[in-house]
Amino acid sequence: MVNSRLACLLLFMAVALASWWSAVICHNITAILDNFPDYSIQNGYMSSTKIADEVNSRQTITCLVLPNIVMSALAADHTPASLKNALRLLVLLDYFDSQKLHDIDGGTTITTTLFQTTGEAIGQEGFVNITNLRGGRVAFGSAVPGSKLTSDYTKSVRQIPYNISIIEISAPIIFPGLFDDGAASDANLTAILEKAGCKIFASLISSSGMIKIFQVAMVKGLTLFAPTDEAFKAKGVPDLNSLSSADLVTLLQYHAVASYNPKDSLKTAHHPIATMASGAAGNYEITVTVQGDDVTLHTGVDSSRIARTVLDETPVCILTVESVLLPEELFGNAPSLEPAPAPGAAEESPAPQVATPVMAPAPAPALAKGPATAVLSPADSPASAPAAESPDDVADKEDDRSTAAVAMVTSLCVAMAVVAAAVLL
Ligand SMILES: *[C@@H]1O[C@H](CO)[C@@H](O)[C@H](O)[C@H]1NC(C)=O
Ligand SMILES: *[C@@H]1O[C@H](CO)[C@@H](O)[C@H](O)[C@H]1NC(C)=O
Ligand SMILES: *[C@@H]1O[C@H](CO)[C@@H](O)[C@H](O)[C@H]1NC(C)=O
Ligand SMILES: *[C@@H]1O[C@H](CO)[C@@H](O)[C@H](O)[C@H]1NC(C)=O
């Protein structure tokens, strides 16, 4: 019994680790663009708005980049928050190299962008029209009816077929209303939380005075994990009235991070995340695991899935969570609180999880494929990349480093699965 529990736990960890990595390893757009100083301004904005994380978590992608002179003119006219969607519109969810652009079927196509994935796009706003014009010219424009094809393909920057392609274009892709966006720091936090079904959390941060601290933080960066009203009513949640006011403030601070971390960025968090409660009094950290599109926060005492994004406007992000996050530093000693979600989850569905790695070790080989092909790629690339127009070597070094890390984690996952299997048998 103890052994099978241990096996389940190990397997669960291996599977969690495997799925966590599969969400992370696609590419590092920041590192790739670091080799091309002509696009350093766009690279900087892609990092600060966290668009880079959205790009890195997608396997097949084309990034349209603007030369610094064009990008700086665009940035001068707009706030970083309103630039975010303009940058998303430059990320195509398909692979286009020069050849494919010039060979478009029928000479025109509509392609989906990262902006479409936000749910904010109305009508055709999340799509881009690519059209071959006379004289070999390839033009880009918004797919919103009546838009002009105002942006031209100028050159290929870097290709890693068929994962990521970087292409320079002459001008941003814009539609009327793209930049209409209120400043997030002016948002009424209480109203937003109440509307999102987090009335109890809203009233706690108001009555404790925490709201003032959050509002100050919203200017520079704030992520809130707001428990829903159901979360506060759930079994196992300690009676908040029995907490001292200092502990209540700590608990509320534990639900906030003083930086901008939208859901896609949390997926790539490598380390435990410090919360606003972190400090001399304790670590008060949160760790993150990813399973497909699900992001789960772990406190050491309990776990909570992120339910939904209520507000995502750089630099403020409000996410609702399904459980109250109970920090180990405050609640770690109460054994009755241990809901054991990890072993519990592994136990409820042990059959598929045990079966998969033992009989047909699915996650491990899927992962192992990544490093294997990637290791081949430097030798491979001259042959497989006929249109190599740029110095690949520097970028490949960066790719190799993450490859090594992936290989290490892969072997760890495999080792854990093997140990688990051995214990089970
Ligand atoms: C991507 O590369 C940049 C610059 O080289 C580095 O700072 C960053 O940590 C990398 N991101 C990931 C997710 O590895
Ligand atoms: C793209 O835009 C051009 C010019 O507005 C238009 O003629 C063409 O039909 C559009 N392509 C598609 C696939 O809608
Ligand atoms: C924010 O919203 C709450 C609840 O809807 C309301 O009571 C409060 O007056 C609003 N505050 C401001 C500054 O508008
Ligand atoms: C492209 O992505 C696939 C799947 O993630 C990976 O296996 C392959 O190694 C990547 N190719 C290159 C050249 O990086």
Automatic annotation (TrEMBL):
<feature type="domain" description="FAS1">
    <location>
        <begin position="185"/>
        <end position="325"/>
    </location>
</feature>
<feature type="signal peptide">
    <location>
        <begin position="1"/>
        <end position="18"/>
    </location>
</feature>
<dbReference type="GO" id="GO:0098552">
    <property type="term" value="C:side of membrane"/>
</dbReference>
<comment type="similarity">
    <text>Belongs to the fasciclin-like AGP family.</text>
</comment>
<dbReference type="InterPro" id="IPR000782">
    <property type="entry name" value="FAS1_domain"/>
</dbReference>
<keyword id="KW-0449">Lipoprotein</keyword>
<feature type="compositionally biased region" description="Low complexity">
    <location>
        <begin position="371"/>
        <end position="389"/>
    </location>
</feature>
<keyword id="KW-0654">Proteoglycan</keyword>
<keyword id="KW-0472">Membrane</keyword>
<dbReference type="GO" id="GO:0005886">
    <property type="term" value="C:plasma membrane"/>
</dbReference>
<keyword id="KW-0336">GPI-anchor</keyword>
<dbReference type="Pfam" id="PF02469">
    <property type="entry name" value="Fasciclin"/>
</dbReference>
<protein>
    <recommendedName>
        <fullName>FAS1 domain-containing protein</fullName>
    </recommendedName>
</protein>
<feature type="region of interest" description="Disordered">
    <location>
        <begin position="371"/>
        <end position="399"/>
    </location>
</feature>
<dbReference type="InterPro" id="IPR033254">
    <property type="entry name" value="Plant_FLA"/>
</dbReference>
<keyword id="KW-0325">Glycoprotein</keyword>
<comment type="function">
    <text>May be a cell surface adhesion protein.</text>
</comment>
<keyword id="KW-0732">Signal</keyword>
<keyword id="KW-1003">Cell membrane</keyword>
<dbReference type="InterPro" id="IPR036378">
    <property type="entry name" value="FAS1_dom_sf"/>
</dbReference>
<feature type="region of interest" description="Disordered">
    <location>
        <begin position="336"/>
        <end position="358"/>
    </location>
</feature>
